[in-house]
Amino acid sequence: MYIDSQVVSNYEIDKEYGRVCLEAPEIAASALPGQFVMMKYWQGLTPFFMRPFSINSTDNKNGTIEILYKVVGEGTAILKKLQKADKVQILGPLGNSFPLKENFKRIAIIGRGVGAAPMRFLAEYARKKNVEAHVFISAARPEFLFDTTYFQTIECQFTGSCDDRRLVTSYFEEELTHTHFDAAYVCGSKRLIGDVKRLMDQYGFEGYASLEAHMACGVGACKGCTIVINEEGTERFARVCKEGPIFPVRNLVY
Amino acid sequence: MYIDSQVVSNYEIDKEYGRVCLEAPEIAASALPGQFVMMKYWQGLTPFFMRPFSINSTDNKNGTIEILYKVVGEGTAILKKLQKADKVQILGPLGNSFPLKENFKRIAIIGRGVGAAPMRFLAEYARKKNVEAHVFISAARPEFLFDTTYFQTIECQFTGSCDDRRLVTSYFEEELTHTHFDAAYVCGSKRLIGDVKRLMDQYGFEGYASLEAHMACGVGACKGCTIVINEEGTERFARVCKEGPIFPVRNLVY
Amino acid sequence: MYKTDLSVQISTLQMKNPVMPASGAYDYFEDNADVFPMCTLGAIMLKSVHRYPRPGNKPPRIAEVTGGMLNSIGIPSIGIEEFLNKGMLEHYKTLNVPVVISISGGSPVDYVEICKMLEGNPFIDAIELNLSCPNVGTGLQLASDEVLLGRTVQSVRTVTSFPLIAKLSPNVTDIRKTAKISEECGADAVTVANTYMGMKIDIQTKKPVLGNIMGGLSGPAIKPITLHMVYQAYSVLNIPIIACGGIMCASDAIEYILAGATAVQVGAGNFVNPMLMKEVIEGIDDYLAKNGCQSLSDIRGIANCRKN
Amino acid sequence: MYKTDLSVQISTLQMKNPVMPASGAYDYFEDNADVFPMCTLGAIMLKSVHRYPRPGNKPPRIAEVTGGMLNSIGIPSIGIEEFLNKGMLEHYKTLNVPVVISISGGSPVDYVEICKMLEGNPFIDAIELNLSCPNVGTGLQLASDEVLLGRTVQSVRTVTSFPLIAKLSPNVTDIRKTAKISEECGADAVTVANTYMGMKIDIQTKKPVLGNIMGGLSGPAIKPITLHMVYQAYSVLNIPIIACGGIMCASDAIEYILAGATAVQVGAGNFVNPMLMKEVIEGIDDYLAKNGCQSLSDIRGIANCRKN
Ligand SMILES: Cc1cc2nc3c(=O)[nH]c(=O)nc-3n(C[C@H](O)[C@H](O)[C@H](O)COP(=O)(O)OP(=O)(O)OC[C@H]3O[C@@H](n4cnc5c(N)ncnc54)[C@H](O)[C@@H]3O)c2cc1C
Ligand SMILES: Cc1cc2nc3c(=O)[nH]c(=O)nc-3n(C[C@H](O)[C@H](O)[C@H](O)COP(=O)(O)OP(=O)(O)OC[C@H]3O[C@@H](n4cnc5c(N)ncnc54)[C@H](O)[C@@H]3O)c2cc1C
Ligand SMILES: Cc1cc2nc3c(=O)[nH]c(=O)nc-3n(C[C@H](O)[C@H](O)[C@H](O)COP(=O)(O)O)c2cc1C
Ligand SMILES: Cc1cc2nc3c(=O)[nH]c(=O)nc-3n(C[C@H](O)[C@H](O)[C@H](O)COP(=O)(O)O)c2cc1C
Ligand code: FES
Ligand code: FES
């Protein structure tokens, strides 16, 4: 879908972080956790590309979606300044989604900072299916542990950390020593994903990572957002926007 | 001067017109009527050029200048949206100014719509020197007869017209039949300036026009804003930003 | 449907309007934003199919720059043989719009081989020779070498009866020369032009941003340069010109037509606005109607004072 | 004054920092925005002085485009003779910064004549040959013709002992060739590059916007292309490169230096931000300091994997 949307609200979490709510009934109704949207919300031709953002949550009753964002450059700086009723073009929902297999009984959800943006939607989805979900989030400061209350409301086990000396995966590892997980879902740095891979090898569970790449089209046409993936020994290019943004951790090549 | 200024207020006159007041003490203190400023008030590189605007008025007490503007394209559309405290880079005051010779006792000031923007400053200047000033302004609608009250406050004779069938110069012509003018100052279309030229030939007074041209540098360096002028039979290029924006009507070539 | 006659003809290729995607910047099936029906388009232009299978270049493959983008996709392709075996062309034909296949190769012989394989194929309507991809191999561009260009077009001409469109490189000293050579060697039209060789350096890592070091610049940044090339080419050519470079709105397309273009291609603009091609078609129609014109030929090339 | 060593040398031209204006885009006396002292600059670059007096092209001479501008100024000039008679050079020398005079002409012999007149002049430090203005005459660009380019540089070389900088045209198929020819014919440095031929059409009037029909494109739109040319030229040259094209901030200048440039010129950027050159100088200094570098030679060309 490509819709002319508008800002319902744009809540400032901090100088750098915000949460924008957008009118998008059809997207709210059809999106799956892990999917993203491409958005253009400025006049003129700079920035050039639309910007990709994960869907943080959907609200079917109000016909809205929410995006959690961090200001890192020109495009996100403009996003921060949007006000109620400002116009936004949205293309989406795009990409694949977090696979939640029938046999999964207990999953881990791992993220850092704004990397946790797609995780709320995933947790909601898992809980609806009655899957047990342990959420592990780290951030630089407590206010950047987004959606904490929500995770608790829907009865996820929640571990939040602002300890810079510990990787968030270390909390997960502690759990793994005594609890079996069927799968882990991670969104964050290469380092984080690498550490999940190590734990997968050690403890045996499935791992899925949400990746980012610079995108032009967002729909698979331009072949611009490729990464290298390894499928059973064979390396090939895969488009993050189309085959992803969610990839099995075991297929990732760094 | 090149200053980091900010918006003091941005008053909407209409969908298309506005008046912005900017903090610029040094410019307010040194500007002469007819001079202009180049302004940049957006992030990024589109629009590319700074935009030129005449100084509508200066306020030395508050250290501000006012710009009267009309939305015609991308750059002026952004100007319309500026809010209090928004940042503006200003280069100026630039260009020459309206010559008001010692022997001028009675002058006419003629403009149409936003073309009248520099005229308030001129009228103020003339009245301070005790020169009699008749102001002739036309506009599409009464609310676009800007500064009407001000012109009357400083005791200019004021003729405003919203009659589309009559060129504003026709009111001036009526006056000319019984009153001598030493000079006329005009800002507006080629047609308007052309008509002032005709009246100059017929009634004998000096005429000065404020011109516009696309500008890159605004300071005379790029030679981009040239027009052809005729000085005693010799045609040459003159830069609107530097030799102008005020030119003797008799030198203009159309 | 339209207020005016938007149809154009390029040799035997009949288009109901002059707008088609630029090769490689649009997909028609699952990789499409799906915001308007494909039959809206004047023609279907395919992503270049290479003679042999190619994986494409190593990532990062795109970078944003002021007024556009760099790409070093490098034509990932399954190769013409598999492409034909898979029945891809039949698939495109179901869209009920004339199909133009774009082909690429490393040497003139590659193009000849592909055209031989395509000869008589009922599912295509024209062939565009991508002679100008800056991202294949060491940056050799057939269309930047007058001798190779002429040789390629000429030898392809002898083996194909399809309308032949030579897509020229803008990385040349004088587009008039390469355009004229294309015409003389039998091209039915030229596409002016492809991307400009460019690059971006990351001052933090101190390395080129693109995995392939350099890439092709496209988007509005290049429009003034390509527009001038279309204008120049029009002054020397008797065959139609398809303009391609930086079209972001109907007005850009109209500028190209006023400069002499018969048709236009939209590339990077599709990414920024998935609705763009539809808007361009409607915008041209509105413009013609507002200007009291019946058809595109009323405005084609009229900004061009150099046409003799 | 600086935290690091920003000095660069181009033959005998000593600059305290690598930043100078691009010819024609900056003035030093009454036509200056006067926002920082002229002695801030690494060098004073003059607007091209033509062999003979020229009025320049008919207006409109500039147009805004996405990410830049078109200009068809056409080098208005009082001609070298009057320029010298008027004592202009003495005037520039009072700024206490090395002075580079840019010269232009319609044919190689014009350049030779000017250089003869300049020989031994105590008020200049180097000569830049503007071989690439798209706005003189019928668009003939000496630097787009390999034979004429070589002949011009070579014949000028025999009559001048000043450091000779050949300003190359980007409107060429391969900048490496024209750069190498310049070096071989005796240039002490090359400036890469000038503006790109471009145009804009007004769809209301249906005519080209510029009085001269076409003009030169400059500004950030061209930066990726010119950056790639600097990168390419660096891989074949042994003489210094002065980069020129679309510098709008310190980071742009640093990209050029990482690609291999010794010095940089700022053109259209001065219009958009009169403070720009000062900001670029300070920004380069900061960057070097932050990256633990002592001098520009620590970073020059290090993004360039092609240098052999
Ligand atoms: C599938 C996907 C989902 C995303 N979800 C979110 C989200 O929910 N919330 C959020 O805040 N951000 C998200 N991002 C990242 C977001 O798209 C970028 O931060 C944004 O595009 C940066 O734009 P900018 O103009 O502010 O920064 P720029 O000035 O373009 O860049 C600033 C920095 O960010 C990097 N960057 C820019 N674009 C991308 C990109 N597409 N992917 C990775 N790095 C990039 C640049 O290399 C640079 O280092 C997502 C990205 C993808 C691909
Ligand atoms: C010395 C001077 C003083 C001026 N004073 C005022 C003023 O007090 N108030 C005011 O509202 N406007 C004034 N203008 C005009 C103002 O600068 C333009 O309207 C503005 O730059 C248009 O910018 P834009 O991006 O909105 O329009 P664009 O999209 O750039 O252009 C829209 C239309 O305006 C024309 N235009 C753009 N720039 C100029 C220009 N510099 N001169 C003439 N036409 C132009 C274009 O050709 C086009 O037709 C002045 C211009 C000059 C040269
Ligand atoms: C992502 C991308 C992929 C491209 N792939 C091809 C291609 O396969 N074959 C080709 O001839 N041109 C290719 N091009 C060039 C475009 O067809 C077009 O000529 C160029 O982008 C200029 O047009 P634009 O400015 O509208 O993008 C590609 C361009 C982009 C941006
Ligand atoms: C208004 C203007 C005038 C110019 N005049 C000259 C000139 O006289 N001689 C010359 O060699 N280049 C001239 N140029 C080209 C610039 O020196 C420079 O090479 C070009 O603009 C690219 O740099 P930029 O992108 O930083 O503007 C001119 C450019 C502009 C914009
Ligand atoms: S962004 Fe175009 S293929 Fe992924
Ligand atoms: S705008 Fe540069 S000389 Fe007038």
From TrEMBL, chains A, B:
Keywords: 2Fe-2S, Electron transport, FAD, Flavoprotein, Iron, Iron-sulfur, Metal-binding, Transport. The keyword Iron-sulfur applies. Coiled coil: none annotated. Its cofactor is FAD; [2Fe-2S] cluster. Binds 1 FAD per subunit. GO terms for molecular function: 2 iron, 2 sulfur cluster binding; flavin adenine dinucleotide binding; metal ion binding; oxidoreductase activity. PANTHER family: DIHYDROOROTATE DEHYDROGENASE B (NAD(+)), ELECTRON TRANSFER SUBUNIT (PTHR43513), DIHYDROOROTATE DEHYDROGENASE B (NAD(+)), ELECTRON TRANSFER SUBUNIT-RELATED (PTHR43513:SF3). This is NAD(P)H-flavin reductase.
Automatic annotation (TrEMBL), chains C, D:
It catalyses: (S)-dihydroorotate + A = orotate + AH2. FMN binds at residues 23, 47-48, 130, 167, 219, 245-246. Its EC number is 1.3.-.-. Its main location: cytoplasm. Keywords: Cytoplasm, Flavoprotein, FMN, Oxidoreductase, Pyrimidine biosynthesis. Signal peptide: none annotated. GO terms for biological process: 'de novo' pyrimidine nucleobase biosynthetic process; 'de novo' UMP biosynthetic process. It holds the Pfam family DHO_dh. GO terms for cellular component: cytoplasm. Residues 6-288 form the Dihydroorotate dehydrogenase catalytic domain. It is found in: Cytoplasm. Its cofactor is FMN. The keyword Flavoprotein applies. InterPro entries: Aldolase_TIM, DHO_dehydrogenase, DHOD_1B, Dihydroorotate_DH_1, Dihydroorotate_DH_1_2, Dihydroorotate_DH_cat, Dihydroorotate_DH_I. The keyword Ubl conjugation does not apply. NCBIfam families: PRK07259.1 (NF005574), pyrD_sub1_fam (TIGR01037). Catalyzes the conversion of dihydroorotate to orotate. HAMAP family: DHO_dh_type1. This is Dihydroorotate dehydrogenase. It comes from Flexilinea flocculi. The lineage of its organism: Bacteria, Bacillati, Chloroflexota, Anaerolineae, Anaerolineales. The gene is pyrD.
